[in-house]
Backbone:
């Protein structure tokens, strides 16, 4: 292998390492975004549970109203 080939391979390796570092930075950014999204989901679960309880109560009341109307 000639010296030029070795230098070309080294240049290619350095370019790949640069790309890997850029990808790692992107991954870190994405992990941060994922963490924030998960935090928001957890925070929203409380509201979702309360809303579901309210919907369940509405359904129960509607069923009671229908039962009374059938009498």
Residues:
């Amino acid at each position: 292998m000639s010296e030029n080939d070795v230098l070309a391979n080294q240049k290619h390796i350095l370019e790949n390492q640069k790309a890997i570092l850029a990808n790692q930075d992107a991954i870190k950014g994405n992990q941060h975004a994922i963490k924030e999204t998960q935090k928001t989901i957890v925070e929203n679960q409380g509201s979702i549970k309360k809303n579901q309880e309210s919907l369940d109560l509405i359904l129960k009341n509607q069923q009671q109203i229908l039962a009374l109307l059938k009498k």
Summary: The chain has a mean pLDDT of 96. The chain has one domain: 1-71.
